[in-house]
Amino acid sequence: MLTLKNIKKSYTTGEFIQVALDGVSLNFRENEFVAILGPSGSGKTTCLNVIGGLDKYDSGDLIINGKSTKEFSDSEWDSYRNNSIGFIFQSYNLIGHLDIVSNVEMGMTLSGISAKVKREKALEALGRVGLKDHVHKKPNQLSGGQMQRVAIARALANDPDIILADEPTGALDTKTSVQIMELIKEISKDKLVIMVTHNPELAQDYADRIVEFRDGNIVSDSNPLNVESKKEEYSLKKTSMSFFTALKLSAMNIKTKKGRTFLTALASSIGIIGIAVILSLSNGFDAKIAEMQEDALAEYPITISKQTQEISKEAMESRREEMKEKATGTSEYVDSDEVYLHDPSENTLIHTNNISEEYVDYIKGIDPELVDTIGYTRIASMNLLRKFDDKIEPIAFSSSDKSNSSQSSQMGAGLASYPSSTKDDSISFIEKNYDLLEGEYPKSKTDLVLIVDSKNRVDVNAMKNLGIDTTDLNSIKFKDLVGMEFKLISNNDYYEKTQFNTFMPSSDYEKMYNSDNSVTLTLSGVVRIKEEAGISLIGEGIAYSDDLTELVIERAKDSDVVQAQKDADYNVMSREAVDEETKKNLIAYFGGDETPYAIMLYPKSFENKDQVISYLDDYNENKSSDDKIVYTDLSKVLSDMTGGIMDGITIVLVAFAATSLVVSLIMVGIITYISVLERTKEIGVLRALGARKKDITRVFNAETFIIGTGSGVLGISIAWILTIPINSILYKMTELESVAKLNPVHAISLLIISVTLTMLGGWIPSKMAARKNPVEALRSE
Ligand code: ADP
Ligand code: MG
């Protein structure tokens, strides 16, 4: 059934060529006990390894059941070893971390036999060698003889045709040797047993046939067979190890070195811990910022101003580029003796928004559920008089013209308008954002309020403008201010026409004050910004409702001075010639222009803001760029900035933590490499039992998979536990509650990253393991 035809095999070590088999030809019977004798180094083991398919012959042929093995592929050799051969070694070669029964089952495990059948066959084989009572012991709990019995049981379990035993009694005492020989003799009744020994007596006593080797040649054969085996059907069952088997094998191995595996997993989890903590912190901060935005930034209105700066994309790019060059020190200086001319304003466009009546109507048409209040800023000045100590004096303040701040700060410091409500029944802007300190909240458009800051301060100029003598004055009682009255004088009463066809403020205050056309304004209360209100957009001083400005304009638009200014191409007060722009401003100043200078929309909530913005964007659709209305969303600018900073910090920190991941990758590589070295023998045994190279890779991949999963789970758990003290420290420092929160998606991603990286680290060592020559692997200690 087995024929060796002129088999040659030599080993090359450096320059030296050692011939191990020098043309060996042998025929074996189906059932016989062949003993191979010969001095050390005569090629016995090599011959056995060639027969067993562990080693490849250089030339000649090995014929199994009439089939030549010359063209055998790797997988055919693997199947052959698994199906047809049972090895018994001098040093037993049991897998130390597996119990006896698993050792015996291993060959069958590789050929994919079901667990039940496998167990049955293994127990039967163990029964045959007399070890039924020891099945769950580990190899190191057995004596040498018992271990060799296990090895025999393993060789028998898969019911191979050929048993190859290399000095099976070499490490045993005489008494045990005899027992083992009896066992092998028994086996040889229905199998071909080829046993290498250098004990001639044992060979004489037990073997049917003795073949003697010398220098790679057969020098004698006690019972040669000359008929070549006939061609028969010969098929082999393919072997393959499932990943689950590989996992089990590695798990058992890892069990024997729990401490080291734990430390490895812990060390390689440090990167994961770092990244997980950083991500959970940045997550938390992002969430807190989002909350803050909803709380505070929602208070920032969306502003539409007559003039807005637009910075072009190109300008942004070049500015960013400049900053990058500065930061990285790569900025280039031009070497030239010329001055280059450029226009910086090319990059910043001043966009003029044409806030027409139509646009104001559009704004007014916004869903009142989206915006609480809409503020309109107009340039119209108010003609105000105040009576005190029976003396009537003008109060010189223009309304809050933000474009002309120098003027307004001089003339009308602390006079501002607040937005009127979009709905009549909603609570007013002042009531919502300000605490009442004295008097009453304004109820009608003729009610004014005094806004003070958190320390109850107010600009001294605002008080001066009210006509209060502030010399030698440090403070004024709320009571003295509340109830103060002013008269709003109509343009026709206020301005007198001169003989030069110009207009001048009249000096007959008494007449104006008592005119039927004047309206009384009352300071109804003193208010202060609420603590929980985000930001104060109205400065300290006297504030009035936008509705009052509307009233002023309503009364002023048909007045003589407005009419005259509309008709004249000069300033009707000074007779100076004016251009179109100045003329427009003058008309507005006199109250002849209803369109606002700026509009501020206060969204009801942060969520509503997007809807408000899309409402504003809708207007711009299909409009030429000149007709577009450009708005400013300050809260977006702010949140983009904070968000950007957070992202930047996170990236830097994650990069640092990633470095430790790379370190752990290398470490796992080293650990796997050590494991490969330690398990070399096991690799040899598995290969002898028919494991494919792929299966060996799988075993080590399984090991790194376990370590990777372990370190991932460990890292995430530790990071999760760490968030508790981190949060309590942050709470003490910032009063922000539970900032660090590990996102489950991040946790799972990190686990996957950990597994992938560790498997990557173990990949090269496990490939190395697979490439190991099985004969050399078996020979290693
Ligand atoms: P035996 O088992 O009869 O003692 P072996 O078959 O082990 O002898 O070895 C036969 C010859 O081949 C010896 O000279 C040995 O040194 C050599 N040899 C065996 N294996 C190797 C190897 N892997 N590399 C180099 N030489 C080897
Ligand atoms: Mg030998």
Automatic annotation (TrEMBL):
SUPFAM superfamilies: P-loop containing nucleoside triphosphate hydrolases. The keyword Transmembrane helix applies. Residues 398-409 have a biased composition (Low complexity). Its main location: membrane. The chain crosses the membrane at residues 262-281, 651-677, 698-724, 744-764. Pfam families: ABC_tran, FtsX. One of its GO terms (molecular function) is ATP binding. It is a multi-pass membrane protein. Residues 2-240 form the ABC transporter domain. InterPro entries: AAA+_ATPase, ABC3_permease_C, ABC_transporter-like_ATP-bd, ABC_transporter-like_CS, MacB-like_ATP-bd, P-loop_NTPase. It is found in: Cell inner membrane. Residues 398-423 are annotated as: Disordered. Keywords: ATP-binding, Cell membrane, Membrane, Nucleotide-binding, Transmembrane, Transmembrane helix, Transport. GO terms for cellular component: membrane protein complex; plasma membrane. Belongs to the ABC transporter superfamily. Macrolide exporter (TC 3.A.1.122) family. This is ABC transporter ATP-binding protein/permease. The lineage of its organism: Bacteria, Bacillati, Bacillota, Clostridia, Eubacteriales.
